[in-house]
Amino acid sequence: MKSVTIPNVKAALELGLLPEEYDKICLVLGRKPNFTELNIYSVMWSEHCSYKNSIEWLKKLPKDGPHMLAKAGEENAGLVDIGEGLACCFKIESHNHPSALEPFQGAATGVGGINRDIFTMGARPIAQLNSLRFGDPHSDRTKWLINGVVKGISSYGNSFGIPTVGGEVYFDKCYEQNPLVNAFSAGIVDVGGQISAKAQGVGNAVYIVGSSTGRDGVHGAAFASKDLTEDSANDIPAVQVGDPFQEKLLLEASMELSKTGAVKGMQDMGAAGITCSTSEMSAGGNVGMDIWLDKVPTRQEGMEPWEILLSESQERMLVVVDKGREKDVQSIFEKWDIHCEQIGIVTDGPLLRYYWNKKKIAEIPAESLVLGGGAPVYHRESKEPAYFSELKKFNIESVNEPDNLFDVAKKIMALPNISSKKWVYEQYDSMVGTKNRSTNDPSDAAIVNIKGSKRALAMTVDCNSRYVNSDPEVGTMIAVSENARNIICSGAEPSAITNCLNFGNPYNPEVYWQFIGAIKGMTKACKKFTTPVTGGNVSFYNQTKVGDSTVPIFPTPTIAMIGLVKNIDNITTIQFKCKGDLIYQIGPSVEDISSSQYLVNIHNITESPAPSFDLDQEFLVQDKVKKLIKKELVSSAHDVSEGGLFVTLMESAMISSYGFNITSDSSIRKDAYLFGESQSRIIVSVSPEKEDELIDIMMSKDVDFHLVGHVTKGSVRVDDENWGDVNDYKTLYDNALGAILEE
User: Fold this and answer.
1) Cα 421 to the chain's mean position, in Å?
2) H or E segment and range at residue 14
3) CA-CA distances (angstroms) from residue 695 to 575, 639, 686, 699?
4) N or C: which end of the chain has fewer CB within 10 A?
5) CA–CA distance from 735 to each of 20, 487, 696 (Å)?
């Protein structure tokens, strides 16, 4: 049997380990590892599980905040206090490489995995978001990918019964071969009712519950820790296969189980399967385990023990049960017709011992396998890319302002990154569970009711990767700030974030420089907004080898933020409410078109700095708008982001078929005023009766603001020119992306 052969360093290299890592394994064990042990180390010391190339910088992120109940790395997901005895459990993770090879199952199992992270903590999932990145929407590959990914998300999420309430879709050629699929889930649990991911109690039983184990996903963690190549299609068995109906049963059984008090630890079997859950739970609780792999229910004959250990078959969890309560637990899973098999026992540590037909096939110190324990830690070389200094040379004066900005406006409204993503989100069930209140009355953030309470949750996900590529530190500060801006505009207050850090190969010094810059920017912005980082994941190796060249994606540190609406009467939406309402911009106008959709798509200039941004100014603008909303002075609020002021106004107008009449700021170029993407700006509408009070509040602090114009019945006018009817723009906006994807 393979598990008793003694491999050498060559075998370690084939499994993705470095020579020095093989030497370290020999030192830890005091001997050479056997084949099974080497496989265990290969997945647990992969980047996907160990964060060996990122942990030193991740430790610098802020983790403390006024609402924190579980800090990053302590449990399966972040946990924040939302008042009234309730907590919100939330997390975002990537499933990029699997989605690149098998988009339907890759995306579907990403949704399943992130929801299991939530309900293994005893929280019932209530809402999902996703952040998706694809290449050129006109290409056949992108159409194949987006069709598969969206169907995978909708098929799993809709069947599982949790609404998808928001997200983002972004297109750029850098994602052509390597799409990004980042899935977010949030759930609710009573404070104190959460379940730990740490194993406890020597002598307690260890159970595997859920689906049978197959060969799908074997070495999936290692697959996610290397570049995509032309041979990656051979790794399709490393892509998991999901069953949302089984997951629904597992959810309900877990919710019932969480009320018994019999659980002394529970963890999802995600990356690296049984290997990861047994090692992390043991190390977290300072205990060991004896695991009997021949007791694991399998669905394929002839599975080797190392395959059972490494399988990433979905809808499975590891549960530690209080000694004497085994029958109570078994009866719950029998009721829901789900496998519940005891496969081990908690020991006094520190060793993990794996057995096959009573024969010990592996013995490893649990601590040596895990993040923060014995897993290797590296600080990679970083180097500023040559392109960075070149981007700074951009000068707006080198760009001629078009004669006909009306035609430009129509083109921008139809751009794939600007136009409606209804082709995507209409495939999702956004209303199941009846908690989502944002589908027909949208805010900048998704709003999810907390039943029986005047409170609600606000949640959003955002990252402009072009900004981050232009300046990783500033671009990531903008990503955090825009999430906070969206939360504030919805009438909520930011609480905490989770992140999904998507980058190229960390052994590339220029990629690692981007990663460091992003961490620095995130740290500064999160401290400013008091939004600690509760966790998330790092996804390196997002790039594709084409011939002899390697092309990394734009650095994409996706940020998801949770906010709290303390009173649902303060919820603010984006649409204009009444003809004659006045339109104000809170925040400064800047003559800047850097990294804008206008510059890239109208002028075909892809090299420019990140847009104008000042973190202190951003905080002041958000604080001011928060006060205006609390005093019920504004009828709508919508932040200025991609597409600039014109797109923001149009998005507020189209929902109820209102229009607007505006006068541009004569102190800056008209194209920059309308389509530039300088930050720290929010558009609010206010009834004339409340204008004086708004002005009084705005004058009390040094925040720029000015009257933009007023809401009309349906016409669009700019500087006394008729730019058409709002419904014509809406038709263009609603149908542009679908027309491309279905052509």
Assistant:
1) 18
2) helix 9-14
3) 21, 19, 11, 6
4) C
5) 55, 28, 42
Nearest CA-CA partner of 600 in 456, 464, 424: 464
Contacts 24+ apart (CB under 8 A), 718-725: 718/405, 718/406, 718/662, 718/664, 718/674, 719/662, 719/663, 719/664, 719/670, 720/663, 721/406, 723/406, 723/409, 724/406, 725/659
Name every residue whose Cβ is closer than 8 Å to that of residue 588 and which is 6 or more positions away in sequence.
Answer: 617, 678, 680, 681, 704
**How confident is the model over 577-619, as pLDDT tens digits?**
999 999 999 999 999 999 999 999 999 999 999 999 999 999 9
Handedness of CA 487, 488, 492, 494 (dihedral sign): positive
Please confirm, yes or no, whether 95 is among the known catalytic residues: yes
The arrangement of strands across the sheet holding 446-449 comes to 446-449, 456-462, 556-565, 493-502, 533-539
| Mean pLDDT computed over 65-87 | 87
Beta bridge partners of residue 150, listed in sequence order: none
Q: Give me the domains of the chain, ranges plus CATH numbers.
A: 1-62+196-377 (3.90.650.10), 572-743 (3.90.650.10)
Whether the CB-CB separation of 383 and 509 falls below 8 Å is answered with yes
**Around 214, how many Cα atoms within 13 Å sit in the side-chain half-sphere?**
14
Catalytic member of 67, 95, 97, 339: 95
CB 274 within 8 A of CB 308: yes
Q: What is the pLDDT of residue 40?
A: 94
For the question of residue 97 being annotated catalytic, the response is no
Distance of alpha carbon 19 from alpha carbon 36, whole angstroms: 18
How large is the C-alpha radius of gyration of the chain? 26
The token pair that represents 676 in the structure block? 């530039």
Q: Is the pLDDT of residue 5 over 70?
A: no
Q: How far apart are CA 647 and CA 707, in angstroms?
A: 17
Task: Identify the residue whose tokens are 């009309």.
Answer: 712
CA–CA dist 200, 204 (Å, integer): 8
Going by C-alpha positions, the residue among 349, 364, 351 that lies closest to residue 29 is: 364
Which entry of 48, 219, 339, 638 is annotated as an active-site residue?
48
Backbone φ and ψ for 493, nearest 5 degrees, come out as: -120, 130
Q: Read off the pLDDT band of 739 (50, 70, 90).
A: very high
Note the pTM of the prediction, 2 decimals: 0.94
Pairing of strands 715-718, 659-662: parallel
Which DSSP category does 349 fall into? S
List pLDDT tens digits, range 128-162: 999 999 999 999 999 999 999 999 999 998 889 89
pLDDT 10s digits, 502-512: 999 999 999 99
Q: What percent of the chain has pLDDT over 90?
A: 84
- pLDDT value at residue 235: 47
